[in-house]
Amino acid sequence: MTAPTVRIDDLRESDAPRCAELEALLFPGDDPWSENAFREEVRMGHLYRAAREGDLLVGYAGLAFVAGPPQAEAEVHTIGVDPAHQGRGVGRALLRELLAVADAERATVFLEVRTDNDTARGLYESEGFVVVGVRKNYYRPSGADAHTMRRDPR
């Protein structure tokens, strides 16, 4: 589980520069999100959560609802954790925060993950996601494929 010093709260527009910094570090071969992309997601009112150690943002995650009841659907837009904090349960804690909100709405949740990212796929599978398809050349500019994964509401 997360270290006692890591807390989860709302992502703020002022976190955008740090998120973009982590994106560039975590996704160098693809098209990492910019500061502006993070600001826009927060402004649009999507659910974005932050993991912080003291004043330092060490992780972030976002979820958007794409269909409402009676068959609600949501998409995990992004999850990222500073490499220095990986393996400590930060990503799992962030994901569970998103899933709790989705489950409260009885939403089916979808996401995409690189087919070569075994660690992330393992996390998602352990939280109830299953692979339902492959998107060829999904990530740009690398051309990496993605698994589409789905989790039914709990």
TrEMBL record:
One of its GO terms (molecular function) is protein-N-terminal-alanine acetyltransferase activity. Its EC number is 2.3.1.266. It catalyses: N-terminal L-alanyl-[ribosomal protein bS18] + acetyl-CoA = N-terminal N(alpha)-acetyl-L-alanyl-[ribosomal protein bS18] + CoA + H(+). Transmembrane segments: none annotated. Pfam families: Acetyltransf_1 (PF00583). Residues 6-154 form the N-acetyltransferase domain. Keywords: Acyltransferase, Cytoplasm, Ribonucleoprotein, Ribosomal protein, Transferase. It is found in: Cytoplasm. One of its GO terms (cellular component) is ribosome. Belongs to the acetyltransferase family. RimI subfamily. PANTHER family: ACETYLTRANSFERASE, ACETYLTRANSFERASE YPEA. Acetylates the N-terminal alanine of ribosomal protein bS18. NCBIfam families: rimI. This is [Ribosomal protein bS18]-alanine N-acetyltransferase. It comes from Pseudonocardia broussonetiae.
